[in-house]
Structures are given as structure tokens and as C-alpha cells.
Amino acid sequence: MKKTNYLNNKDILSEIHKSKNTFCSFSLPEYHQYDAILSNINQIDNEFINIAKSNRAKRINQDTKLTIDVENIPNTDLIFRIMTFDHIPDQPGRKKNPKTIADRKIKLNFPPFQHWKFNDNNELICIGKSHWKGDVFSGSFSLDHGIATDKLALMWMKLCERYATRGNVRGYTYNDEMRGQAILQLAQIGLQFDESKSQNPFAYYTAAVTNSFVRVINLEKRNQNIRDDILEMNDMNPSYTRQANDEWEVALKREKEFQENNTF
After folding, report:
1. What does the mean pLDDT of the chain come to?
2. What SS3 class is residue 231?
3. What are phi and psi of 117, to 5 degrees?
4. Is the predicted pLDDT of residue 1 greater than 90, yes or no?
5. How far apart are CA 128 and CA 136, in angstroms?
6. Pairing label, strands 132-133, 36-38
7. Helices 150-164, 201-233: crossing angle, 10 deg rounding
8. How far is residue 156's CA from residue 114's CA, in Å, rounded to a whole number?
9. Whether pTM exceeds 0.85
10. What's phi and psi for 58, nearest 5 deg?
């Protein structure tokens, strides 16, 4: 049985793409795959068209093991992903001092986009929208009709499980809680990865997991300090950690005094 590697960027990107597609609507199912990502439709020029052709040829060559000449790819086959909020409803007052267009729109689970392509008349037409349900033109905005794929969820869990075995965190008694909080965090922000800015979702997820673990550790340490303070106020022994730290501080103080008294 072939072992599945859940933690490589290629597979993670593929599952993120599949998950986002469940929140999208396309004129035809095959229009889900894009060849280039742009921030504005006006950026589509000969340079980006050639980039899109190169990307499409590379993907076809990898998927089919065939050799496709870039020059043989017509413009009408190319699909461009445009990162835009044009089809996202406004939500006035969501933020007190909105600074970006995203602050003025409904809060989304990932950056919105549209897919565009050339028709036979060499005109750009919209063929897909994110956060959309129904026909591309007569449908409506929808935020909760899609889901993350089962495989992507397994990737999140696998990443958290592996991180929890690291030497700097595996000894904590609340390791399970840290792992659970990290999985919850990935479930909330896992689709927010923006392919237009990076092709390394593994690093993005690892940073989120690290922050979750550190946040739980800091919270537990704060609570432990409060408990130890209460115990000491009532003339009771604090935790072994507090006692060890106190003994260490006393030893350091004695060492410092000894060095000061023996300095010539």
C-alpha cells in the first residue's frame, strides 16, 4: 500500500484548491483550473498571456506526460484568476475605521476571486466566481455552502500531531489541549491562504500552529503563576516549577554575591 504524504506543498495546494471550489460557481466544471493569477483584469496583456500559456503547458505536460508546445495553446483556452471584491456585498459598519476594501465587505473565509477567459471574439468574459451559488450571472452570493475536503482536514490534523511531538512541547501535560487549539485554528484560517502571494502553504500552516501552541503555553503559565501566588499567600507550597525557579534564583544570587566578595 502506497504511503500518503499529507505534508507537501503540492498536495496541500491541490486540496486547498478543491476546497475553495466548493464555495464557487463556474459556467463549466473545467473552468475551475486557472493558468495565471492577477490582481486586476486590466493587467492581462501579452506578457501575462505568455505566462499563462507556459503555466498551462507545464501543467498539461505533468498531468498527461505529453509534450505540449506553448505556441499551440490558443488564447481561448486560457483562464485567468482575478483577485477582486466586485461581487462581494458591502457590510457598512463592520469596522469602525475601514482602511481597505476588504474592511468594507462581508467577512470572508478566503480572498475572493473571479475567473475570466477570452471568447471566440477575443473578448474577456467572466466564467466563475468565488463565494457564489447558482449561475455565474443570475446566481447569488453565498458564504456557507462549501466545505473543506476530508483530505485537507487530515492534513491539518497530521501537521498538528507532528508538531505536538517536538521536543520543546511534547513534555507539557496540556499537550492535547495545545494540539486541539491548533487544529481549531487551522479549521478557521486554513482556507485564507492566498495563492497569489505564495506557493508555500506548509510554512503558512506551520506558523499558525506555532502561534497556537505558544498562545496556550503562555495562558497556562499565566494561570499557573496565579495559582502559585494564591498558594503562597495561604502559606502553602506552590508548584514544583515555582519551587525550582525560586531555588535557581537563590543559587544565582549566592553565586553573584560570592563573585562580588572575592573580586580583587
Report:
1. 89
2. helix
3. -150, 165
4. no
5. 6
6. unpaired
7. 50
8. 27
9. no
10. -60, -45
User: Are residue 193 and residue 93 in the same domain, yes or no?
Assistant: no
Both 217 and 249 in one domain: the answer is yes
Q: Convert the pLDDT of each residue in 213-234 to its tens digit.
A: 999 989 988 888 888 788 778 8
Give yes or no: residues 39 and 68 share one domain. yes
126 and 160 belong to one structural domain: no
Query: Residue 126 in 3-state DSSP?
Result: strand
Question: Which residues does 264 contact at the CB level (< 8 Å), separation at least 6?
Answer: none
pLDDT tens digit sequence for 77-102? 999 999 999 999 999 888 888 889 99
CB-side neighbour CA atoms (13 Å) of 256: 6
Looking only at the bridges linking them, the beta strands covering 36-38 and 79-83 are parallel
Phi-psi region of 65 (alpha: psi -120 to 50; beta: other; left: phi over 0): left
With a cut of 80, say whether residue 76 has pLDDT above it.
Answer: yes
Cell digits of residue 64: 498527461
Give the residue numbers spanning the domain of 100: 23-141
Torsion sign, CA atoms 191, 78, 138, 93: positive
Q: Are residues 61 and 121 in the same domain?
A: yes
Together in a domain, 74 and 97: yes
Q: Provide the β-strand partners of residue 259.
A: none
* Cα angle 70-26-90, degrees, rounded to a multiple of 5: 120
Question: What percent of the chain lies above the pLDDT cut of 70?
Answer: 95
- Shared domain for 29 and 128, answered yes or no, is yes
Note the pLDDT of residue 5. Answer: 56
Q: According to DSSP H, which parts of 192-239 are helical?
A: 201-233
Query: Domain for residue 264, yes or no?
Result: no
**Is the pLDDT assigned to residue 130 strictly greater than 80?**
yes
**Residue that has been written with the C-alpha cell 461581487 in this structure:** 87
Task: For residue 183, give Cα distances in angstroms to 192, 208, 225.
Answer: 15, 10, 27
User: Same domain for 130 and 162?
Assistant: no
